[in-house]
Amino acid sequence: MKKLTGILLCALLLVFSTFNGLNAQTKAISSMKGDLNNDGVVNTLDVVMLINIIFGGDQGIMYADVNGDGVVNTLDLVMTVNIIFYGQPSELTVATSEVSGITYFSAFCGGNVSDDGGLDMVSRGICWSTSESPTVFDNVIFNGSETGEFACVMTDLASATTYYVRAFAINTADTAYGEQRVYTTDVYSAIGQSVDLGLPSGTKWADRNIGASLASEYGNYYSWGETATKEDYSWNTYICTLDQCDTSEDPIFAAGLTDISGTDFDAAHVIWGGTWQMPTDEQLSELLDNCTWIWSTQGGVDGYFVIGPNGNCIFLPSTGCFDGTELRFCGALGFYWTSTHCMYNTTNANHLLFNPSHSFENFLYRYYGQTIRPITF
Ligand SMILES: [Ca+2]
Ligand SMILES: [Ca+2]
After folding, report:
1. Which ligand approaches the C-alpha of residue 26 most closely?
2. What was the pLDDT predicted at 63?
3. How much is the average pLDDT of 340-347?
4. How many angstroms is it from 67 CA to the middle of ligand 2?
5. How far is the CA of 54 from the centre of ligand 2 (A)?
6. Which residue segments constitute the domains of the chain, with CATH numbers given?
7. Which of 68, 242, 320, 374 is the most exposed place for a label (fewest CB within 10 A)?
8. Chain-centre distance of CA 338, in angstroms?
9. CA-CA distance, 47 to 138, in Å (whole number)?
10. Which ligand is nearest to the CA of 65?
């Protein structure tokens, strides 16, 4: 029925245009399918123009290829008439977002599926490669099967390397790609670097833990207020026993400290030097409150990409903690000391604890061995 309407109208307009003398000399480029004369609407003027192109022998004008099959013929005429009657056809359409949060090992990109092409969506995501025009047969991350916006993180990238990335969408008939984006990963540095996440206080976070050479390495474990690693993390080996906490036998209490940031009890200050410190509980709260936390995997290790207000990010691996001689919850939970004494129970200090669904501030016995992610300004 649709086709018949189109053919009938084409025939009528063919007769009309023969007398009308309209020609297709004006080269027009419109993003709207069927809008040959580029006036923002698809109507009989476009049909007349198309008829002149087809029957006037002007086959070189490929902008008149309305259905995109590589030739200009009566099928384009039928499609144009159908657009006039039924509106623009649905077409699987996806756009690639800008690349952000680039580190020496990762970067964020995503897309927006604005049209499912009138069919069921099968998948969407991003694909990337060191070669141009990446496809779903290169590196790929699948991210749902809906229309709308989505974001993904590319991990395990090589440093100082140029990558090409495109968003894609797949429906039951077709695969569509968004425009290609190009980016270059940062240069790897052998020593810890500060990352400006755009936090309100201006605090910058290190790109790795103390003792780690990569963002995804766990690094060293320290009891709270100690600056050396050890075999056994317990009250027996700690700077004071459980009973000595908050007495003159507790060196931190004896020094009158409720926060060890920047002191000789601060492993970041002692080991990394310069302006590096352990984060206070306030600085940890700022990181929790102002950043987007995305669970992912880097270097075979699960953890959080923490994305700041300015789009920059750090990776926090699931370090676990030492209790006695045993490393617990490694690869499942993250344990990171702050410099702040627990105000409710002086045998404890505050820390960051996270699992795949939650990140929050908590407190733990001071003797536990936990990792430290330094901060600076
Ligand atoms: Ca038009
Ligand atoms: Ca065509």
Report:
1. 1
2. 82
3. 92
4. 5
5. 10
6. 2-86 (no CATH), 92-184 (2.60.40.10), 194-376 (no CATH)
7. 68
8. 27
9. 42
10. 2
